[in-house]
Amino acid sequence: MTITPQKPRKDPRQERSRSTVDAILEAAGQLIERDEEAKQSRVSTTHIAERAGVSVGSLYQYFPNREALVAALLRRFVQKRFTEIRRVLDEVEPLPLEAALDRLAGRLIELELAHARVMKALMRWFVRVGDFDLIAEADREAEAALAELLARIRPKTRAVDPQLGGFFLFHAMRNTLGMAAFREGDMLRAPAAQAELTRLLYGYLRPD
């Protein structure tokens, strides 16, 4: 069995090259999201190049195949999401515990709804691309960020090991929000969704 390369062929160092790669990835994201909405799977490197306004040859200078391109797009999306989550964690830290968790729940739901369709599409492609190291690395970074937050707000919570707490909290949130996104976000749009997620988080962290 031949393993399909999943890494970019060339690292874009010059500004013009970075702009080309940005245009290619933006076009790929738009087409993948469009196909998800239409419940089709017609994305090809030719379509992506046309949408990006570059030649297919230029696309292949940076990505050896469609799978490598989608892997790069998924990597960029995951990094962007992590930056957004880190910003939310910093935002809620000064608040009292229940208010902080309510704000966290609300902001995470907003982010999930904003990106639900593209994330759903990318995860379908992820099954084909199989870049499990990328997902594992992103998970560890998010777990560590939550562990840092728990260590800083320890006086507000029950006695919980930050590393264990970060692990369980992250996966409880990710799996809950992720499954809701795969159902087109209907559950997350329910008026009580934020309150229910807050109860889940507060029930785990509230002082004994």
UniProtKB/TrEMBL annotation:
Keyword check for DNA-binding: yes
Chain residues forming the annotated DNA-binding region: 44-63
PROSITE patterns: HTH_TETR_2
InterPro entries: Homeodomain-like_sf, HTH-type_TetR-like_transc_reg, HTH_TetR, TetR_C_15
UniProt keyword DNA-binding present: yes
Pfam families (alphabetical): TetR_C_15, TetR_N
Residue ranges constituting the HTH tetR-type domain according to the UniProt record: 18-81
UniProt keyword list: DNA-binding
Matching SUPFAM superfamilies: Homeodomain-like (SSF46689)
Lineage top rank: taxon: Bacteria
MF terms in GO: DNA-binding transcription factor activity; transcription cis-regulatory region binding
Protein name as annotated: Transcriptional regulator, TetR family
Species whose genome carries this gene: Sorangium cellulosum (strain So ce56) (Polyangium cellulosum (strain So ce56))
